[in-house]
What does this fold into?
Amino acid sequence: MTLIAIEWDDAAGDDGRGACRLLDQTLLPGRTTFRDIRSTDDLVTAIAELAVRGAPALGVAGAMGVVVAMDEGARSGWDEAQVQQAVDRVRHARPTAVNLAWGVDQVRPLMEQGRDAVLAAAREVARDDEAANRELSRLGADWLLERLDRPRLRVLTHCNTGSLATSAWGTALGVIRELHARDRIELVYADETRPLLQGSRLTALELASDGIPHVVQADGAAASTILRGLVDFAVVGADRIAANGDAANKIGTLGVALACADAGIPFMVAAPWSTVDLSMADGSGIEIEERSGDEVTVLNGTRLAPVDSSGFNPAFDVTPARLVDAVATERGVAEPRRGTDLTSLGR
It folds into this structure.
C-alpha cells in the first residue's frame, strides 16, 4: 500500500514551515485527496471528521499537532498560554483513543527547545510506530501459527487497521499482511463497519492493493460466518487497552468476540504499546465517544430513516478481557483470557 495517512510536508505553505499533510480518508476509495493542515482548528476538524483516524495514526497526529500549534502561534502572535491551549484542544479532540493524547505528551516536553526539536520528535513517533507495527505483526502471526494447523487460514477482521490507520504497515491488518507474506492466508472476511464503512471503503482497498484474497460482508453477518465454521480466527485493532486486557475498539467488535468465544476460535487484539493504558485497571472507565446520530440515519445526503427517528451512534465498544485470547504488542503477546494481563509486558 503506497498511500500514507499522515506525514509532515516541509514544502507545503509559503512560510518555510511546512504543514501536516493528511490523506482525506472520508473520500476513499473514490478520490485521493490530501489536506495540508496549518491550523489547530483544521486539525481538530480533520480528527472529528475522521479524515485521519486509527489509534496509531492519531498518535502521530497528536505529536505533529503540537508543531501545528507552535507554528500557528508564531504566525498569529500568540503568547505561551494560547499555544498551550491550542495543544490541549488537539489532545482532547477524541476521547476514547488514548494514542492521541499519548502522541501530544511524547513531544510536549520538548516545546521549550523549539519547534524543530518537536518536529524531529514527532517524526520519530511516526518511525517508531511503523517499527512497532511490524514487530507486533510478527509476534502475533507466530502466536497464531503455533495454535492453528490449517495450511492456509481464514480470518475475520473489523474496521480498518492497516497503513491508513497507522504511520505505515498496520496492526491487525499488519498481522494479516505478515501471514500473507508467509503464504498462510486463504481468505479475509472484512466487516463493512457501519455506519462509516471503514471496512468496505478502506480495509478492502488495502487488501485489494496487496493482492490478499478477501470478501466484504455486512456487520450483521459476522457472527453467523464465525459459527458456521468459516473462520479460523479473528483479529482486530484497539483504541485503548486497559491493564487487564479489556479492549475498546470500533463498535461491533464485541459481537465478533462473543461469537469467537462460542465457536472456540482465537480472538486477537493487535495494537502498539502506545495503545495500552496501564493507568486503567479495567475498561469500565473508558469513555465511549458518541458521534452524531446522522451518521446512522443519513448516507451520502440521503436520509435512510424517518425524519422523526433519531440515531444512536456510539463509536466504540469495550470487549472484556475474558473474551480476549491474545493481545499482540511489540513487547510481546499477553493472554488475558488465561489470566495474563498487560502489566506482565510493561515491566
